[in-house]
Design a protein that fits this description.
Main location: membrane
Strand order of the largest sheet: 1-5-6-4-3-2
Number of domains: 2
Helix content: 25-40%
Keywords: ATP-binding, Kinase, Membrane, Nucleotide-binding, Serine/threonine-protein kinase, Transferase, Transmembrane, Transmembrane helix
Radius of gyration: 21 Å
Protein name: Protein kinase domain-containing protein
CATH class of the largest domain: Mainly Alpha
Mean pLDDT: 77
Number of helices: 12
Order of helices and strands: HHEHEEEHEEHHEEHHHHHH
Subcellular location: Membrane
CATH architecture of the largest domain: Orthogonal Bundle
Number of strands: 8
Pfam families: PK_Tyr_Ser-Thr
Low-confidence stretches: 1-62, 67-99
Largest sheet: 6 strands, mixed
Distance between the termini: 28 Å
Structural class: alpha+beta
């Protein structure tokens, strides 16, 4: 096992549940075991995926993703999948049996668990409100998103109830599901599980000298999991849900480093704010949040994939002018294999399979096309990432077999 160090010291972290850029206080990371998959962990992935039942972090993460937790993966990408209202309700009903349902919390309960929303409990602040950490005597920890009351000025009281109803219907292994809500005395709050490992943004950009970087296999697994979450919003939900704020700070990581997409279902709030959402993530056609489409989400996801590949932020004024915008710097190099090797996050220290880089870069290139009509659909992205995982498995088996033959010849 190797220990790695990062390029920079840690500034304050990004928010866990908002698009926030203003932060308070640095929080520590939970010690983690390596998520790198050894050759033995790949055995049987392609043979009998139906037999995989465990989510053991050492050998189950890639397998579980190949089982397609996304309910609406299209067999053909030529046509749009459509679901009747009853079909969609039935699909959601099937998931609800194993999903936590949103429950009401009292204002008094949340005030007590957050020390009356004390500054020391503040996790982050964004365009629609603040997120606080709620702690309970039994050890339970939740994240409470307190929506700014200005967003409900002129709105009927039923608007928040409608928001809660819509979000609570959404269940997928790779989204941060709503577990509770509160609407009392003019306060409107959404409650989620608290993810102790924070966000992908923190792991990639804010790691300190004692943090271990994400391995290449974990990065691919995160990309596949997030793409499945977006596919669920785009192709399973009816009508389709455009996220409008996909970025690394809205991708939360659990203890096994499985990704959970947050801030979904909040598009109506983004239309009411003049704040630029996700600097560096917005597609060229999106001068205003109202201009977002499904393909705009795909573009933003492509930027996240670039972060996973390079370890760079979407916008970084500390770099030379020609490298400050990640997409503009990376786009011309994505099809140049020699340049591609130089783009890889230095934190990986060369510990990645070179054969995986070109197909990964090809997926990115299709996501960040300037013309939205030329971008891949998210279903195509999911399928491409699955093929990448499968091909990586085959390559690893071949390398392992070649290594065994070499060792045998020495005796």
């Amino acid at each position: 096992m190797f220990a790695f160090t990062r390029r920079r010291r840690s500034p304050p972290p990004s928010s866990l549940f908002l698009d926030d850029d203003k932060m308070s206080g640095r929080k520590g990371f939970t010690p983690l075991h390596s998520q790198e998959l050894g050759a033995e962990s790949y055995a049987g992935i392609l043979k009998e995926p139906k037999d995989f039942k465990s989510m053991d972090p050492g050998n189950g993460d890639i397998k579980s993703l190949l089982k397609s937790p996304s309910m609406g993966l299209r067999r053909s990408v030529s046509g749009r999948v459509s679901f009747s209202e009853n079909e969609f309700a039935n699909r959601l009903k099937g998931r609800r049996s194993t999903s936590v349902q949103a429950v009401p919390y009292s204002l008094a309960d949340l005030q007590k668990s957050t020390d009356n929303f004390a500054p020391g409990r503040l996790l982050g602040e964004g365009s629609i409100g603040r997120v606080y950490r709620a702690k309970y005597p039994d050890g339970k920890v939740l994240a409470v998103k307190k929506i700014d009351s200005s967003h409900f000025q002129g709105q009927k009281p039923e608007e928040f109830s409608k928001l809660v109803t819509n979000i609570s219907k959404l269940h997928h292994p790779n989204i941060a599901e709503l577990v509770g809500y509160c609407s009392e005395q003019g306060h409107n709050m959404l409650i989620h599980d608290y993810f102790r490992n924070g966000s992908l943004h923190e792991f990639l950009h804010l790691s300190d000298d004692f943090s271990k970087p994400l391995t290449w296999n974990t990065r691919v697994r995160i990309a596949l999991g997030v793409s499945r979450a977006i596919e669920y919003l785009h192709d399973v939900c009816s009508p389709s849900i455009v996220h409008k704020n996909i970025k690394s700070s809205n991708i939360l990581l659990d203890l096994e480093l499985n990704p959970h997409l947050s801030d979904y279902g909040m598009a109506s709030f983004h239309l009411r704010t003049s704040q630029n959402l996700g600097m560096g993530y917005n597609a060229p056609e999106c001068a205003q949040p109202s201009a977002y489409t499904l393909k705009s989400d795909v573009y933003s996801f492509g930027v996240v994939m670039l972060e996973l590949l390079t370890g760079r932020m979407p916008l970084d004024n500390q770099r030379p002018r020609s490298e400050q915008c990640l997409v503009k710097w990376a786009r011309p190099q994505l099809h140049d294999n020699d340049a591609l090797a130089g783009m890889v996050d230095p934190a990986l220290r060369g510990l990645y399979p070179p054969k995986s880089l070109p197909p990964f870069a090809d997926i990115v290139a299709l996501c960040i096309q300037l013309d939205p009509n030329l971008r891949s659909s998210i279903a195509e992205v999911v399928q491409a990432l699955v093929r990448l995982v499968q091909q990586s498995t085959i390559n690893m088996r071949e390398d392992l077999s070649a290594s065994c033959r070499t060792n045998d010849s020495e005796y």
